[in-house]
Design goal:
With 149 residues, this protein is of the alpha+beta class. Helices cover 32% and strands 31% of the residues. It contains 5 helices and 7 strands; from the N terminus they run βααβββααβαββ. The chain has a 7-stranded mixed sheet with strand order 1-2-3-4-5-7-6. A hairpin with a 4-residue loop joins strand 2 and strand 3. Helix 1 packs antiparallel against helix 2. The relative contact order is 0.15. The mean pLDDT is 87.
């Protein structure tokens, strides 16, 4: 959890179930930009069996700023944390991105070698200033953004 204008936390399965009525609209909003590979129900099921992770970020007033879904992609020689979706409304983008360090640390703690975001071209503008402690930043790969960690 980070202490600034926003607080972010990884939700446990029982928290997801309890809060799903407020999480679902944000997940569905983000999925509206996908090509239909998953539904919000699919994500809820994956999160309940810990095959996906749901991160809740609230602002200083306790209002939801974002709901992020991550999951791991394991290949023969590489493990990547995918930021599957990000839904919400963030007024202070630079303050919100302090949450990014939480995601980087989570990926490192889980032996990932990179973080990827599969998203629209517009994410390039939002991601360009984010770096990790080794100075790596996100690089677009066919609108797949990858940061080595």
């Amino acid at each position: 959890m980070i202490e600034n204008e926003y607080r972010s936390s990884l939700l446990a399965p029982h928290d997801i179930l309890e809060k799903w009525h407020i999480l679902r609209p944000h997940v569905e909003s983000a999925l509206g930009h996908s090509v239909g590979e998953m539904t919000s129900f699919d994500i809820a099921l994956m999160a309940m069996i810990e095959k996906a992770h749901i991160w809740l970020t609230v602002d200083k007033n306790g209002s939801i700023a974002s709901v992020i879904v991550t999951r791991f992609i394991e290949q023969t020689r590489r493990k990547t944390m995918l930021i599957q979706s990000c839904g919400g409304s963030v007024e202070e983008w630079d303050a919100w991105t302090a949450h990014h360090d939480t995601l980087v640390n989570f990926a490192k703690d889980n032996r990932c070698s990179s973080i990827q975001i599969w998203g629209r071209k517009g994410w390039q503008r939002r991601l360009r200033h984010l770096t990790n402690d080794t100075g790596h930043s996100y690089k677009p790969l066919y609108h797949v953004y990858n940061m080595e960690i």
